[in-house]
Design brief:
Distance between the termini: 26 Å
Strand content: under 5%
Largest sheet: 2 strands, antiparallel
Shape: globular
Helix content: 55-70%
């Protein structure tokens, strides 16, 4: 069990490092600048340098803050999000928990992060943090509705809420599938084509609209631009994590 936890944690943290690097590079390209260039080749070690910087920063707790809840909030948010990955298949080897209601579990457990965000905002004893937390709650809960409806499309098409079964249906396990493009349909041998042609988005092109809705909802759920009003540096300094420093901020 411990080994599986280490594998999942390693995959998640590695993905975060790569995603942060490419986000910075792409943002820099859009803004006509180089981005990180000093740490490592083309700045590839910048994310690792940021981690060391954050670990070394002083852990400050406001004097009027609820110390216990202030410390508990980041741990709670990370825990519930990490628990959601327990049922997400990573590949051909069954490392994830065997749960026939995987999608329902993910929706239920990950949605609890709003509790941690509210605790962080309230326990900080800061009006900026509290307003940021309230904005985050309103935004996350609002966009969970279209996100859930989009996932229902996949559930209806696949006939299951088991994430592994959904993943297997998009692999080369099945011999034949019917591909629908407009009014025409024909059968293709999956064992010959495989790969991306098995993806639900390719098999059912009308899913492009739900995919766009899902992508927009995911940006809102993660408070990413242009849905970053909970953090809103222009009026709320940093939103619900204004008073956090060091690794708690991370």
């Amino acid at each position: 069990m411990l080994g599986i936890v280490v594998v999942y944690l390693s995959v998640i943290l590695s993905t975060v490092l790569v995603a942060f690097y490419f986000e910075r590079k792409i943002s820099s390209f859009v803004q006509d600048r180089y981005g990180p260039m000093e740490t490592g080749k083309f700045g590839m070690l910048q994310a690792i340098a940021d981690i060391f910087k954050l670990v070394q920063k002083e852990d400050i707790i406001p004097s009027k803050a609820d110390s216990l809840l202030f410390k508990f909030a980041p741990f709670f948010v990370f825990s519930v999000v990490f628990m959601g990955f327990a049922v997400v298949p990573l590949g051909a080897f069954p490392l994830e928990a065997e749960l026939s209601t995987g999608i329902l579990f993910v929706l239920a457990i990950v949605s609890l992060d709003v509790i941690g965000i509210f605790i962080a905002g309230w326990a900080s004893e800061s009006k900026f943090s509290l307003l940021g937390a309230m904005r985050a709650l309103a935004q996350i809960i609002s966009y969970e509705i279209p996100l859930g409806l989009v996932l229902l499309c996949i559930v209806i098409l696949t006939g299951t809420v088991d994430l592994r079964e959904i993943a297997m249906q998009q692999s080369m396990v099945s011999n034949t599938h019917s591909y629908l493009f407009g009014m025409a349909s024909w059968n293709l041998n999956i064992s010959e084509v495989g790969g991306i042609l098995n993806w639900n988005l390719i098999k059912f092109p009308f899913l492009i609209i739900p995919f766009v809705i899902y992508y927009i909802s995911s940006l809102a759920e993660a408070n990413r631009a242009p849905f970053d009003i909970p953090e809103a540096e222009s009026e709320l300094i940093g939103g619900f994590h204004t008073e956090y420093s060091g690794f708690r901020f991370a």
